[in-house]
Specification:
Number of helices: 11
Oligomer: single chain
Distance between the termini: 46 Å
Structural class: alpha+beta
Number of domains: 4
CATH superfamily of the largest domain: von Willebrand factor, type A domain
CATH topology of the largest domain: Rossmann fold
Shape: globular
Length: 482
């Protein structure tokens, strides 16, 4: 294990330096203040993992291995599994650090705001003094109802009393409210205490209309906070007036989950459901890393945040987020392989990285080799049916995301043309997969509905939410399981 000490003035600070690409270098993410210094820990392999420590496995499978001499594209499925030893009843779960950020703008008046308050109190009742919570409310102004503190009986009483006085009013400074909530969590980076899993819950029913409002900028900031401060973000959209094209990408970039909530009951169910999921987290800040030979390009079909890694050429990092015990995820990418130029092969390398506590682990690199062959050999190679199946599902989910985006922009003709194109592409490789044919039929029905009228806000939000759940392998907490 490598340990690096940084002087006090070089500590990681929040917000002001995140967007400028500063902070710790990529492999030294975990940090803890000890003796006036920040100690960074990096563990380059899993050989020292204890038998009781959860481990992650990665299985990368291409649809085909041969490459056309003029170049071609291939689907690759990356299957991630969290392997955990039997749970020891004596082992305590890791503590949580949560920022609960509530919209109190005018549109939240009445039952919505009262239910949001009830959801906060229900969540607090499930936590213990080992956990720490802050509560922030926003309209066009931001108020910290309670700074980050241990969830003691006295803290719960203070929050209960403070929430009674909160009334709906004014506009929606969503960005500043969310950022303030993250800041209450980031402040603990300067303390000597051990930190728990940190997540910001953002609940709103409206559209950001004060301060920063650009969805792309806000999502980029959520990614920066997740990557540099280890704070993830989940978003909870209530009703039909919020912007799913803001809250959805924000949660993806922030490594959390997006929720579309239709009723008061679903607000409480989903708050507590995600909390129960956090209790089961076994690996934090999971990311999939890909390296490729020059000339290879990668396009992600699944709904994850991907960025190029400046420290290594031809490499990408895909943020998976926090994973629970025994969880499985499928990540689908389309790999574009260049035309042959003297080389016989193209190589793709991939691995997983994740955190348990303050220590980073990663799997060994896996190599996928693609060989050039004549066109007849390429055409004769059988496709991996499972990879094709997952690729079709994730391409259909991407088609729904893009269709909602075009619908919301008013480009109905463009949405219909795009759906037709995606349906044709999926049919070209999924013609003998019954479930993919069903997906094509559903996309066709959506396209037919758009011929008569734009998608209603309810349909658009439900379409977006459903694709997000499946593409990211996440749970729908709106209706508790029997």
């Amino acid at each position: 294990m490598v340990q690096i000490n940084f002087a006090e003035e070089e500590k990681l600070h929040f917000v002001s330096r995140l967007w400028q690409g500063q902070g710790c270098s990529e492999q030294y993410v975990s940090h803890k203040k000890k003796g006036g210094h920040v100690k960074m820990e990096y563990r380059p392999d899993t050989s020292n993992m204890q038998a009781t420590t959860p481990s992650l496995t990665l299985n990368a499978r291409p649809e085909r291995h041969f490459i056309h001499p003029h170049g071609c594209c291939r689907f690759v499925a990356f299957h991630i599994h969290v392997a955990c030893p039997p749970a020891d009843p004596k082992t305590k779960r890791p503590p949580l650090e949560l920022a609960l950020v509530l919209d109190r703008s005018g549109s939240m008046s009445g039952e919505k705001l009262q239910t949001a308050k009830r959801a906060v109190l229900t969540l607090l009742d499930r936590l213990t003094p080992r956990d720490r919570v802050s509560v922030v409310v926003f309209d066009n102004a931001i108020d910290i109802v309670q700074p980050l503190n241990a969830v003691t009986p006295g803290f719960k009483l203070k929050v209960r009393n403070a929430l009674r006085a909160i009334q709906a009013r004014a506009s929606t400074a969503l960005h500043e409210g969310w950022l303030t909530g993250c800041d209450t969590l980031a402040a603990t980076a300067d303390s000597s205490e051990d930190h728990g899993l940190a997540r910001c819950f953002l609940l709103t029913d409206g559209i950001a209309n004060v301060g920063v409002t650009d969805p792309e900028q806000i999502a980029s900031e959520a990614a920066g906070i997740r990557e540099h401060a280890a704070i993830s973000t989940s978003t909870f959209g209530i009703g039909l007036d919020y912007n799913e094209l803001l809250l959805g990408p924000m949660a993806v970039a922030g490594g959390g989950q997006f929720h579309h909530l239709r009723t008061s009951e679903e607000i409480v169910n989903t708050f507590t459901g995600e909390l129960e999921g956090l209790f089961s987290v076994a690996a934090r800040q999971v990311r999939l890393e890909i390296e490729a030979d020059p000339g290879i390009n990668t396009e992600l079909l699944s709904s994850y945040w991907m960025r190029s890694m400046s420290s290594r050429p031809q490499s990408w990092s895909i943020a998976i987020g926090d994973l629970q015990r025994d969880e499985d995820r499928q990540v689908i990418a389309q790999i574009y392989l260049p035309a042959q130029d003297r080389q016989e092969q193209q190589v793709l390398r991939t691995r997983l990285a994740w955190h348990i506590g303050d220590v980073e682990y990663h799997t060994a690199w896996q190599e996928l080799s693609f060989s050039y062959a004549d066109p007849s050999t390429c055409d004769a190679e059988a496709r991996d049916a499972q990879v094709i199946h997952w690729a079709g599902w994730h391409q259909a989910d991407r088609a729904r995301r893009e269709t909602v985006a075009r619908n919301n922009r008013g480009d109905i003709d463009g949405a219909r043309k795009y759906l037709k194109q995606e349906m044709q592409q999926i049919k070209q490789y999924g013609y003998d997969d019954k479930e993919l044919l069903d997906e094509i039929a559903e996309l066709g029905s959506l396209r037919q509905e758009l011929a008569h009228a734009p998608m209603s806000p309810d349909l658009a939000k439900e379409q977006y939410y459903r694709q997000q759940l499946r593409s990211r392998g996440q749970a729908d907490y709106r209706t508790p399981e029997e």
